[in-house]
Structures are given as C-alpha cells and as structure tokens.
Amino acid sequence: MRKKILLLAILHVTFLSFSQEKEVFVKYIDSDITVDGKLDEKVWSQVEPAKNFWQYFPTDTIQAKSQTEIRFLYDDQKLYVGIKVYAPGNDYIVPSLRRDFRAGGSDNITLMFDTFNDGANAFLFGSNPEGVLREALVSGGGTDLRGFTTSWDTKWVGETEKYDGYYICEWAIPFSALKFREGETRWRFNSYQFDTQGNERNTWIQIPQSQFIFNLAYMGDMVFEKPLGSPRSPISVIPYVNGLAGKDFETDEETTDIKVGGDAKFTIGNSLNLDVTINPDFSQVEVDNVITNLSRFEVNLPERRQFFIENNDLFADFGDSRAANPFFSRRIGIATDIDGNTTQNDILAGARLSGKLNNNFRIGLLNIQTANDAEQEIAGNNNTVVALQHKVFSRSNVGVIFVNRQNTSDEAFVTPDEEYNRLIGIDYNLANKDNSWNGKFFIHKSFTPNTTSNDFSGGARLEYNRNNWRVLTSNIFVGENFNSDLGFIPRKDVFRSFNRVERLIFPKSGKINRHIFSLGTFFVFRPELDFEKADHTFAPRWQAEFKNTSNLSITARSRYTLLFDGFDPSRSDGLELAAGTEYYYESVEAEYRSDMRSIFSYNVNTTYGEFFNGDLLTLRGGVNLRLQPHFVIGLNARYDRIDLPDPFSDNDIWLISPRMEVTFNKSLFWNTLIQYSSLQDNLGINSRLQWRFAPLSDLFLVYNDNYFTDNVFAPRVRSINLKVTYWLYL
C-alpha cells in the first residue's frame, strides 16, 4: 500500500512539474540603457529575473546544475534583455563567429517570444559567449524541425562579456522587429541554454525529452508593467547592385551584366507586413547541397531566398510536405526550357502581405510575376497565393488556401492546357495544450483546363506523444489528375499509409541516456488500378542516444515494389527493369554520430542489402574539424555500389563535398563549398566572401565554377558576382 501511495505521489509531482505556470515581470523604464554586456545600470538590479531553469538533457526531472538568470526592461521602442549564464568553467565551445549559428554542439542561450499567445509561432533570438547573434522564426508549434527557419533576418543589437564562471549577454530588440497586438500585457516566453562543459541542455519551463526543446506548448509568461503601445515602424528599403561576369564553355558564350533592384518593407499596424520586391536577385544565396537520389521520385529542397522566408509557414504548411504540398515556393523562378532542361526564370516583381489581424486570425497574400522568354519558350506567369488561418481551441487552427498560376503571355507555344492552374483547399491543424496530441486533416481540389475528375487530394495525420510512447499514423490520397504547378506532388494516383510506434526507455545508470525502439510501416496503393499495392516497407529500428551526445542507430528494412513504369536502379542509363515487374528486397542500415562537442567530430553510415533485383552497398560519412572560432573544415562523402545481374548495368556512384568556413571576425566571412557528383558528371565550386559593413547591409563576392568530369575534365560554366545590398530605414 505504501508503495502505491509513493508511486501516486511521484506521478502527481511529475504531472505538476510539467504543468507548471511561471511568469517574469518586465519593467517599464524611461532611462537610457547602454548595450555593453555589463548590466551596470542600477535599474537592472531592481527587477526579478526568470530563474530556476530545469534540465532537458541528460535528464528532464531535476533543476539545472548551472543556472541562468534573465531580466527584462522595456521602453516605448525597445525590449531590453539582460542574461547571466553560469558555467562550470571558462572553456566554452564557439565554433564560428558567423551569425545565425546552430545551437547544437556549442555554448549558447536562446529566447523565444510567442507575442500573440497562440502556441503556434514565435520569434527566436540567441547569442553565445563570443557575442555572436542569431535570430529565427519558429512555426507549427515547434513540433517539427522544418518549422525552424534561421534564414529570417531583422535588426537588433547585442553584446556579451565573459567573466570567471559565467558570461553576460545584453540585448536591445526594437519592438518594430516583432509583431504583436497593441495594448498587450502578456507574451508567452521560454528560454533554452546549451552548456557543453557541464554537458547540460536546460530550459526555463520544464520540457519532457519526448518533445523538441523549442516546443511552443511549454512556455511561461512575460508580464509587462503597462500595456504595449504602437512603436514607430520605419519603412525599410533594401536596394542592391549586382555585377556579373561569366562564361558558358559549352556554347562559348560570355556574359556580362549589371543588375539593379531591391526590396521594401512596410509595417501595417503592429502585426502586418507588406513586402515588395522589384527585379530581385538571389545570387548571394548559398548553393544547394547536391544529393544522390536513388529513388524513382523527385525530392524537395529547402527555401533559402529571403523574400520568401518570413511567415513562410502560413503559405507552405498546407497539405503534406512530402506527398501533396499545394504551394512550394521554390517552383517560382524555375521553368523548363525548349530542350526540356530546368533553368532559371527571372522574377520581375512581387508583393507579400502577411501577419495577424488579431491574436487568432492570420492572413497571407502573395503575388509574383515572372518574365516571358519567347526564345526558350518559357511563358510569363502571374502567381498568386491567398492563405487564411484562424486559431481554434487552445493551439489548433483552421486554414484555407487558394493558389493560382495564370499565363500572362500571348505566345503560340502555350497550349490551352497550360493557360492556368488553380487550387483551393482547407486544413485543420490539431495541437492540444501540452502537445501530447497533434495532427493534420486536409482536403484540396485543383482546377486545370480540360480536367474534371480525380483532381482531389486529402489526408489525415494523428500523432500521440507522451512520456515514453510516440505513435504516428498518416494516410494521404492524391488523385490521378490532382495538380498544383506551384506545389510539390511527387506521385499521383496513390493512397499512402505511414504508421510508426516508438517506445522510449531511459536507463537509470550507464552511458546510454535513452533507447528508442520503433517500428515503421509504409504502404502505397493505386486507387485507379483497383487499389493494387505499389509499395510497402517494414522498418524496425533501435536508436541509442548517449550521455556524451553521441548517437548510434540500426535499422532493418523489408521492401516490396511493383513497377508501373520502366526504371533503371543503377542510374547509369542502362537497360531498365520492365513495367509490371515486382521486387522484394531487404537491407540493414547502421549509423553512428560522435560527440559534436569535440574539436574533431564525425559520423558514419553503412547500408547493405538487396536493391530491386540486385545488391546495394552505401557508405556515407562526414568529418568536421573545429579550430574555433575562426576555422571550420568539413568533408562529407557518399559511395554507392549498385550490382545488378546481367544484362542490367552496375554502377559506382560518388558524391564528395569538402567545405571550409573562415570567420575573420563578426562581420567578415568566407565560405567555400566543393561538390563532386559522378551521377551528375560535375565538379562544382562555390566560394562566397561576405562583408557585413552595416546592420543587415552586405557586400558579397561570389565565385562559381563547374567542370565536366565524365570523359574529360573541362570547364563547363564559370561566373563571378559582386553584389552590394544596403538596408535603409526611412
């Protein structure tokens, strides 16, 4: 009986701790604050800090060993933050001085502000012991890594000073950098801190390890001394000048060009943004990482262009990102030329209105006009997206989307079927108060000339996440004629079902922090073919996360595939496997990732087994050498050996990607990425020098070089860009 009472008491305390309510007072001031990392103004000592941080790792049930104190002040224009971060010593890990660093494997402190108290979106700000800043947007309630956007930029200042056993960060964040409702007196708030010396990850509000550390369901309150006003919101104008020189060695054509354009940002009220772009240029954007895709279907890559970033979740989170996404912004500015090649299509101008009308209602309107290129038979198009989202219950919402691509040219090569493509859809996004239940339910319909049936997609996903169990089920239907020219739809005429059960076990002692045992199943059926099965996968998996932050996993896969079209698994343009043939094949994958806190870290991955009617060996790995805080040198490599029986082809596929990052100081960075892909027969070099000579104002020198590597090593395309951008407040 006593044991039962003790158990109930423990469960009760655990429930109370994860359901805690904490708040921190934000004091109004009318005196000046000097942002210098000292906190020596008297007013800082007059406010009570947010304190009593909890461990998130290696355990989530005790107070942090090294605590953090966060104080807040504000005036009519700015929020001031004073942070004191204690540490076991002074041997901090700061890999780089580059802005927008990643938190993992380094010392840093991060704050998140849910300014509309909706538990769905937040502004994130962070710093490290060297005073390097980062900012990001968190969307989707912080339930998925895809909702973490570090490409967002805004103007704010921060300084850090190191002392014996702690460091102090002092920030000034203009209210104009944030969006909120005038008259608000509370924001939801949380903070997380990475301590590499004590091997801790800590949070102000206690968060179970089964959830992400940036989950927005677990937040306390900032209580402002008096209601927030409407700060001055300046108009931002960001003009650019870009000079380009290049040569295409295949056609022996040389190019020189000077391009001028820019962006403008207007704030409407406290919570709406109007962004305008004219003749945009994205030459400074980091190149995509080349991948080896052995599947039969297209893969999507993340959006990196700044104009499309802010409030991107409002437009992009409809449907399913992997199977039926009605709007994928990377489609804009890309087209197919007369030879069937994918090429850049210039954007002439665009505008985006996005934000909140009130705490519960978000709106988004995007309109982009692309250029007409008659020589390459690329038609100009006007692209419009309208997205509305309304909060329901504690953290859920209902969204409606309308997507329209309309041909604006009068070219003979445009067929009647290509005149327009439209889509309308409705989504319900479920998230309960503590995120133990979340999910999505949607139905979308497309409109294409001469198409009147099978043009729907729909889906239902539900996930349970509580303590030691995580259960997911996802079912999606995509009609044979469902189409979104601005979306991502890799397969049509499919009903796909994905299910996964995970059991988390936390050992009381030893080197392993937690075991994760899981079983995943994946089925694909073809509705128009009497629901004939096209694919299935069974994937049991074991993962061990060690207390030193290293990670080991083993996954077995048993697969079935029925081909409906010919396919060459070797990717060598050899003899294809015939349509109508079916294959059962099994494989095992093992992966290890070392302690990312080490000066030298690495990861290795091996997959071996059957592949369609043959065998596959995949070896992947990466090494990273940190000479902090100025140099990071890395190398990623992948080798695929595909053995198929005669008369089918074999293939050896290589992908090698060395990278060097040099941060001379907090304003001058030089990154070089070299990528060799035998599958693409290309060696690419991208070298980018960036000088941030003023806040959010940059000079870029970008060198790109590509070489043929198949029969002869020879130059393919070469270019150099010099671009200057300047952020003006009017």
TrEMBL record:
This is Carbohydrate family 9 binding domain-like. It holds the Pfam family DUF5916. The lineage of its organism: Bacteria, Pseudomonadati, Bacteroidota, Flavobacteriia, Flavobacteriales. It comes from the Bacteria. Residues 236-641 form the DUF5916 domain. Residues 35-208 form the Carbohydrate-binding domain. One of its GO terms (biological process) is carbohydrate catabolic process. GO terms for molecular function: carbohydrate binding; hydrolase activity, hydrolyzing O-glycosyl compounds. It comes from Dokdonia pacifica. The keyword Signal applies. Gene3D superfamilies: 2.60.40.1190. Residues 1-19 form the signal peptide.
